[in-house]
Design a protein that fits this description.
single chain, 233 residues, Multidrug-efflux Transporter Regulator, Chain: A, Domain 2, three-stranded antiparallel β-sheet, elongated
């Protein structure tokens, strides 16, 4: 006979509230839940593994992705769910390559091109946003925070950014996901301007270490996901 569990038992095991479990159920993330004669939820081993999978995936993936993955699996679209996970892994790989590439770029004394595009001393916010892969609104926010500066076109009044400022924008856009505090970023930019590259190197190494940790966490989530898929088969 299959073992059954109460919401309280699972909540205690996973160190979450029963409200959290109900939310996952209401969001359609787990298999259908039967009810007892007294209208109490009856969770089984499959449900436990579903909850474990959700919690493990949330540690390494974005919430909307985790929810969509679990819904796809519930619908029986396992392959589609795995492709969603694979895309997230690819993004971490891209981010790692970006951080490593920017570290190489910072060490270069002669920085006249980026992504095979020639750089000038008066680039518009649109161009630097495109090069950095961020929204112009992010650049305006960083300028407001005092991390970067711009000049103004004498006629149009448009913001113009120099090559050193683009370098700063590239650094901010790369490290903002791993070094959250504005003051930390400001210190790194000051070190870069003063050519204290050993300190800048350490900051990038921290970013790479965090990406490595994220990758490990993501694969732990994949292990639980595969166990869940096995439970359903």
């Amino acid at each position: 006979m299959q073992e059954v569990y109460t919401p309280a038992q699972i909540a205690e095991r996973l160190n979450v509230s029963t409200t959290t479990l109900r939310r996952y159920e209401e969001q359609g993330l787990i298999p259908e839940v039967l009810r007892s004669a007294g209208n109490h939820r009856i969770y089984t081993t499959v449900h436990i593994q579903a909850f474990i999978t959700i919690r493990s995936l949330l540690a390494g993936y974005e919430i909307p992705v985790v929810y969509e993955v679990m819904r796809r699996i519930k619908e029986g679209s396992v392959t589609e769910a795995l492709w969603l996970i694979n895309h997230q892994l690819y993004q971490v790989q891209e981010e790692k390559q970006r951080v490593e590439g920017l570290l190489t770029m910072i060490r270069q004394a002669d920085f006249r091109s980026y992504k095979n595009r020639k750089l000038t001393e008066a680039m518009t916010i649109g161009k630097v946003a495109e090069l950095a892969g961020v929204n112009p609104s992010a650049i305006r926010h960083w300028e407001k925070e005092g991390l970067i500066t711009s000049t103004r076109h004498p006629e149009s009044g448009y913001r113009l950014f120099s090559v050193p400022e683009l370098r700063k924008i590239l650094v901010i856009s790369s490290l903002r996901k791993t070094i959250y505090y504005i003051e930390n970023l400001r210190d790194i930019l000051l070190d870069m301007e003063a050519f204290r590259l050993s300190k800048v190197d350490r900051s990038f190494q921290v970013a790479l270490e965090k990406l490595n940790q994220k990758l490990t966490t993501q694969y732990r989530g994949i292990a639980e996901l595969m166990a869940y898929i096995q439970c359903l088969s």
